[in-house]
Amino acid sequence: MSEDTAKWQIAHSFAKGFNATFSDLESRISVAAAVEPSSSEIIQGLAAEVAALSRRLSDVLGTLPTYDQRQHEQRVKTLEQSLEKLRAAQPKSKFTFKRKANGSAKPPSSQKPSELPRPEAPSSSNLILSSHHDAYLGWHNIPIPTAGSSSDATIRDLTNCIVNLASQTTDGVQITALHIHNLKNCLLLLPDITGSVMLHDLNRCSIVVGCHQFRMHTSKDVDVFVSISSSPIVEGCSRIRFCRRPDPNSRQLQSEPLMVQDFSHIRPTPSPNWSLLPAGSTPPASLPDSDMGPDEVATLLDVTLPPGI
């Protein structure tokens, strides 16, 4: 293979992954702009991904043709400008000065505290599951918004935990995007996500999920059983193993090979950072809806998680 051919393949491979990430971020920023108002956590997450895309471009600038480089830089700038508009649309905090109390005191309200009206749950809000260890966790550990609503969800800061969100009802709640951060020695059985699953800093975990987009960053020793029509993406990861999740509704998809893109490995050679699970691998069996004690959790994790190093 000539040097020019190798450079073209590197540029082509990078452009394919870059453009896929750009299109996904552009779409998600547009969706966030249509929600009034967008949560600060969503905006921060988008900003972090745009910054990561910019860093990825900086790492390969010396290997790209000048025209391609300018096109990619302009696309990053477009995303940054869209984010600035999204931030500018955020409601500003309002401050008021309290008036000094006068001599005439206001008569106390005849309504008892218990009779005060309770605020209604918003139709769309963030679901958060965080800061647990040595525990069996489910929907009962997450405050659920109004039935039938849609929501982003965040799972973070868990150690030695089983998260079972697949076998229990969500009262019609649809998770549009899932963000997972800082998990160690965890098993996650997740529902189908209508949008993206973003994962950061996982260590020795197993995940079962269906989604539209799957992106994993800075993680190691993770087994992924996924139902997905697009290509999963990894970056800054090592020893990640993939397998298609059994899905009786997508038999054609089951027969298609799972193609994973590694944005940390842009050479025209197989990535050493991910592999396919052995043929016949199956995700952990469904778990009981009832609670499990710490000893039962530890025993199940020992037989379901990847070996690690």
How many whole angstroms does the radius of gyration measure? Answer: 23 Å
What value does the average pLDDT take?
Answer: 79
Percent of residues in helices comes to 25-40%
Question: What are the low-pLDDT stretches, counting only 5+ consecutive residues below 50?
Answer: 94-101, 103-124
Task: Estimate the global geometry from the Cα principal axes.
Answer: globular
Which CATH-level-2 architecture of the largest domain? 3 Solenoid
Structural class: alpha/beta
Question: How many DSSP-defined strands?
Answer: 10
Examine the coordinates and then state which fold CATH places here, giving the name of the CATH topology of the largest domain: Pectate Lyase C-like
Largest sheet: 10 strands, parallel
Under CATH at level 1, the class of the largest domain stands as Mainly Beta
Give helix and strand order, one letter per element, not per position: HHHEEEEEEEEHEEH
Tally the helices: 5
Strand content: 25-35%
Our count of domains comes out at 2
Give the termini separation: 36 Å
Subcellular location: Cytoplasm
Protein name: C-CAP/cofactor C-like domain-containing protein
Region (Disordered): 94-125, 271-291
Keywords: Acetylation, Cytoplasm
Element layout with pairings:
Elements: H1 3-34, H2 40-59, H3 66-88, E1 127-137, E2 150-164, E3 174-192, E4 196-210, E5 213-217, E6 220-227, E7 233-235, E8 238-244, H4 251-255, E9 261-262, E10 274-276, H5 294-304
Parallel strand pairs: 1-2, 2-3, 3-4, 4-5, 4-6, 5-7, 6-8, 7-9, 8-10
